[in-house]
Amino acid sequence: MQFPFTVLSLALGLVVSVSAQDSPIEPANFNVTNALIDLGVDISALPKLDALTNRSSTSGCLIACESLEILFGSSVIKQGDSAYDGFTNGYWSVQQETVNPFCIFKPSNAVSVSISILISRLTQCPFAAKSGGHAAFSGASNIEGGITISLEKLDIVQPSSDKTTVDVGPGNTWFNVYTTLQPLDIAVIGGRVSGIGVGGLTTGGGISFFSNIYGWACDNVASYEVVTASGIILTASPTQNSDLYFALRGGGNNFGIVTKFTLNAISLPGGLMWGGGRASLPPTFDAVVDAFYNVGINSPSDPNAAQILSFAYAQSANLSIAAADLQYAKPIANASIFAEYLAIPAISDTTQIRTLANLTQEFNASNPDGLRETYWAATFKLDKTHVAAVRDIFFEEIQPIIDAAGIVPAATLQVITEGQLAGMAKNGGNPLGLPASNGPYLLLNLNMMWTNIADDTRILQANQRIIDRTVALAQSMGLYEDYIYMNYASQFQDVIASYGADNKAKLISIAAKYDPTGVFQTLEPGYFKLNGPPVAGRP
Ligand SMILES: Cc1cc2nc3c(=O)[nH]c(=O)nc-3n(C[C@H](O)[C@H](O)[C@H](O)COP(=O)(O)OP(=O)(O)OC[C@H]3O[C@@H](n4cnc5c(N)ncnc54)[C@H](O)[C@@H]3O)c2cc1C
Ligand SMILES: *[C@@H]1O[C@H](CO)[C@@H](O)[C@H](O)[C@H]1NC(C)=O
Ligand SMILES: *[C@@H]1O[C@H](CO)[C@@H](O)[C@H](O)[C@H]1NC(C)=O
Ligand SMILES: *[C@@H]1O[C@H](CO)[C@@H](O)[C@H](O)[C@H]1NC(C)=O
Ligand SMILES: *[C@@H]1O[C@H](CO)[C@@H](O)[C@H](O)[C@H]1NC(C)=O
Ligand SMILES: *[C@@H]1O[C@H](CO)[C@@H](O)[C@H](O)[C@H]1NC(C)=O
Ligand SMILES: *[C@@H]1O[C@H](CO)[C@@H](O)[C@H](O)[C@H]1NC(C)=O
């Protein structure tokens, strides 16, 4: 027996409107059912009353997923379908792979994203959005018992006719983007590892090989096409909905689902540049810190140069190593700014002139999927003594965990250079709250992979200890900067608060305008929300 969906909307419409505020985007009497009808959804053809007898989230999600399936057919994958495990295994970390959504929805256009958000509101079935699936912790882009909206079909890479911008869908990995643009002699400011998604990297910030010249990915977005909580498709740019544009430059998934990024293009003839990794052993570690510090400090003298330095432990060889990944934005080998690094004896060296896409493939190979993963972040004013201390604290604190099966612990160091900070100020600025006057900064990213769930707690606790000690030391040296980079943060870190009280308040008021009922706070609970970290407390 079929019952019209309006019965459901009557029951739940009240819930939806209770907390509604005055918003120019969504009026207090916003009717989700009518919004769906306006989008051409034939409500009367949708689910059955028996699913309504229980308003647990499971029955809500059953209704939501059945409705999506009636509307979108094979774009919906349910538990038990043959494609289901293949999808969940496609996440980077095991923590995300082992989350089981009620269904997976693969919208092929922005309107379908709108419909799925409205159906989530009606049924109160929670959702998550997935782009490249590289966020490490559980629930960041996959949701237990809810709707995982996979953006993979939103995969356009379309340069403008004058090649100054490129429309890029969040369904792309950076590899697709770079290989498509290479024959046109252009590139964009994006990820450095081929398999990373456009969506997560760009909404959280985005450090690229070219950021010392142009700034971060989020600071090189000309405009966003975004589906808001009311299912409205808006453009956010410096001139349209500029408050939303500001918020999306690092505010994460708190404001809507971005269905298209219009990215500024840069010239990169043949896609060619120089780069690779040089590894060295403990006797070189002081020279490595010197080289790292000097390349960071001297960045304004040659912003083509970029670096990522990881101190790591190689379990099978029982060796501590320094891996310096060096890049140059032109096909020029051994630029003089790298002279100190290049004088350090290397046990391996892959630097060469090669394409951007090729370099991202090399880095992808060193970040395999299918392992347990954790990422942590902290920021400090760049100081050579402190950099060396961070290295030493890292090696000390990993001693109790280096016996964990399959562990690869690393402390990855980067400099947020003057050039990056200048990029953040473009077009009205971003909400990250990093004052250019205190830079350049050391960005610490702890990252560890391992095999057994039984080792989770002690590994997470070691990460917490390294953060605590490096922060306390920085505080005592007057070097602490309260900014936590979203894309590297752990589930225990309060990213939005780290942007500063003013920026947090601004983001909350922008969210109140575009999402007055807090859909992206409550119905999309994963990842870094406005009012706190994904997991309260410490590991
Ligand atoms: C191996 C590796 C290499 C990395 N390299 C870099 C690097 O070079 N530079 C750098 O800055 N960071 C880097 N990172 C960090 C990376 O930016 C984050 O992990 C990022 O979240 C990954 O994006 P994703 O789309 O793959 O992830 P997902 O897990 O798909 O998404 C992450 C979060 O973003 C949200 N989201 C995704 N798409 C959208 C959208 N369209 N609209 C709204 N919200 C959305 C998701 O809901 C989720 O909460 C790297 C990470 C890894 C694991
Ligand atoms: C929303 O609109 C539907 C008709 O489309 C109506 O039946 C329902 O009562 C409305 N809900 C609320 C809460 O006003
Ligand atoms: C409703 O859900 C609860 C648990 O959430 C369950 O105990 C109960 O049996 C359900 N009732 C019906 C009618 O399905
Ligand atoms: C690893 O090397 C250190 C010396 O650097 C040594 O003390 C330790 O016993 C070695 N561990 C193993 C498991 O071989
Ligand atoms: C760059 O330096 C490396 C040694 O670090 C050397 O092997 C290589 O030939 C140099 N390349 C050029 C083009 O000078
Ligand atoms: C890409 O890089 C690999 C090493 O990572 C190299 O062997 C290969 O020749 C490169 N291919 C191209 C087309 O540059
Ligand atoms: C990156 O590596 C993973 C394996 O760990 C692989 O599945 C994926 O296809 C690679 N991505 C690209 C774009 O090559």
From TrEMBL:
Residues 97-268 form the FAD-binding PCMH-type domain. Residues 1-20 form the signal peptide. The keyword Oxidoreductase applies. The keyword Glycosyltransferase does not apply. SUPFAM superfamilies: FAD-binding/transporter-associated domain-like (SSF56176). Pfam families: FAD_binding_4 (PF01565). Keywords: FAD, Flavoprotein, Oxidoreductase, Signal. One of its GO terms (molecular function) is oxidoreductase activity. Belongs to the oxygen-dependent FAD-linked oxidoreductase family. PANTHER family: BINDING OXIDOREDUCTASE, PUTATIVE (AFU_ORTHOLOGUE AFUA_1G17690)-RELATED, FAD BINDING DOMAIN PROTEIN (AFU_ORTHOLOGUE AFUA_3G02770). This is FAD-binding PCMH-type domain-containing protein.
